[in-house]
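Summary for the steering committee. One of the milestones for this cycle was to obtain a three-dimensional model of the protein with heme C bound, which we needed before selecting residues for the alanine scan. The sequence and ligand used are listed below.
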Amino acid sequence: MKKLKKVLLYGSGVMLLLLLLAAMVFQVNFYWRAQKDYVVKVRPVEITYTTEAIQQGRHLAVVKGCNDCHGQDMGGKAMLDDPAIGFVSAPNITKGAGGLPADYSEADYVRALRHGLGKDNKSLLIMPAHETSKLSDKDVAALVAYCMQLPPVNRTLPESDFNMMGKALTTFGLIPAFAAEGVDHTYIQPKEMLQEVSVKYGKYLAVSCSGCHKADYKGGPSPVLGFPPIPNISSTGRVGNWSKAQFAAVLKTGQLPDGRIMRNEDMPWKMTRHYTTEEVESIYLYLRSLK
Ligand code: HEC
Ligand code: HEC
């Protein structure tokens, strides 16, 4: 009996030590990656403040999901409060109180969007820079023009704070916590993408769908636990049998040809419904070109 007690005591002591050690590894790994200084050259982009540019910027802010995370007024939002990850807020990116500093420049916006880096050249958290880094010069300029002229919103959000589980998942590469790590920092973006109905334009636009539908658009298990699997939307999936009108209805209303309406929380159709008819047609052409 005494012996058993001794073994148990010893065993739990070892367990505790191992847990502590693991926790230390996760802390250090997270800290090290958060503190990494990136050396990138932000390629200058000319920002023009025409009505057309600002309108295109607003359109992009909607269809690229900036508003979903940063809020309708871009004044920031608590984005995630998950016991398995921790707390993440998408910050106030206006120049109001609690927002970006007054000297946050056009180039700082470009650095955030194209490299996933803050003013201090350290990685931003969660911000989907691997997608925004693919935007053309003209589109990124439009977004920056739009952001720079936003009315200041006074809102202070609590700082993001990953818990131990979130740090463990990050260490194992299960959450893309650090935006800059997913970016090809040497990528040279196209100057402009012609806004015409074409496979090429569709490919450019569909980058925004790849985060969920995967790089090959063939879907797979959801990255978020408890969410439905992500369908294949290439020509080998059901989209391959749908007419252009049926596809457009799915993106515009969330309603599938069989009548079921998808939940916006699963497939964000309240966002995709803002794509223009030409954009939807281009995405359709591109997805159907994928064998
Ligand atoms: C999935 C949610 C999400 C989406 C979509 C998103 N962001 Fe972010 N963004 C974040 C988070 C979270 C941060 C904060 C990163 C941090 O705290 O390190 C951030 C940071 C930023 C920053 C940097 C602020 C700073 O402190 O330097 C800018 C600028 C920004 N986002 C603009 C945009 C724009 C413009 C879009 C649309 C093209 C966009 N974001 C889309 C979540 C998002
Ligand atoms: C946040 C993740 C997410 C993003 C971003 C996203 N989707 Fe989806 N999509 C889903 C999920 C999940 C479903 C399945 C939902 C269901 O069946 O209820 C789905 C379903 C679909 C379907 C129906 C497919 C079928 O066979 O039933 C189409 C078409 C589709 N998405 C196209 C797109 C396109 C095009 C984009 C980009 C413009 C996009 N999605 C962006 C998650 C996403």
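Key point for the committee: The chain has eleven helices and three strands.
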